[in-house]
Amino acid sequence: MRAPEPFKVRYGRSLDAIVLVLEGRVHYAFTARLKTLFDEIGERLRDETLLIDLRALEAIDSTGMGLLARLGRAALARGRRAALVCPNEDVSICLRSAAFDELFVFLEHWPFDETLTLGEVPLGAGEWTPEQVGRVMLEAHRELASLSEKNRQSFAAVISALEAECEASGRSN
């Protein structure tokens, strides 16, 4: 089986917003770096709006969704709900079914007239061990499960399996 193609992430600012763009298919194999980036953005947020552009997102797995939820909570902790630009009906339905509409404001259209200059964020996967990726996956699924009772029930078995895997890998080290 061939390794998944890495998705693309671009980042930048407007006068009153931090803009994050996710493109392609967000896959767990590259989400360890995404966690670091999202944590950095969450720490930088002040009074600006966080706008996450998902117009070119084809798919997102549950680990990516959990990390996105973590970033949404960071924005909410700073006093503002982050906004998702998500016209893709399949992605939008997936996110809404996981209670993302309680955490984010959903927009169907791009809110800016001006063109923003965004830089691509490198997403190398080589610096993370399988154990570290497993821990990121566990944290992301816990975050996703905390959004709603339905999510808690849906992801309970996944979380249990990830906890057992992380515990087993911790004993072998």
Name the beta content range: 15-25%
CATH H level, superfamily name of the domain at 8-124: STAS domain
Structural class, judged by helices and strands? Answer: alpha/beta
CATH class of the domain at 8-124: Alpha Beta
Largest sheet: 7 strands, mixed
Q: What would you report as the Rg, rounded to the nearest angstrom?
A: 16 Å
Helix content: 40-55%
Number of helices: 5
Offer a concise description of the structure.
With 173 residues, this protein is of the alpha/beta class. The protein contains five helices and seven strands; from the N terminus they run ββαββαβαββαα. 46% of the residues lie in helices and 20% in strands.
Verbal overview:
This protein is of the alpha/beta class. The chain has a domain at 8-124: 2-Layer Sandwich (Transcription Regulator spoIIAA). The protein is 46% helix and 20% strand. Strands 1, 2, 3, 4, 5, 6 and 7 form a seven-stranded mixed beta sheet that branches. The mean pLDDT is 88.
Give the SSE map.
Elements: E1 8-13, E2 17-26, H1 31-44, E3 49-53, E4 57-60, H2 62-77, E5 82-85, H3 89-97, E6 104-107, E7 119-120, H4 130-145, H5 149-172
Parallel strand pairs: 2-3, 2-4, 3-5, 5-6
Antiparallel strand pairs: 1-2, 1-7
List keywords for this structure.
7-stranded mixed sheet, Transcription Regulator spoIIAA, 20% strand, 173 residues, 7 strands, alpha/beta
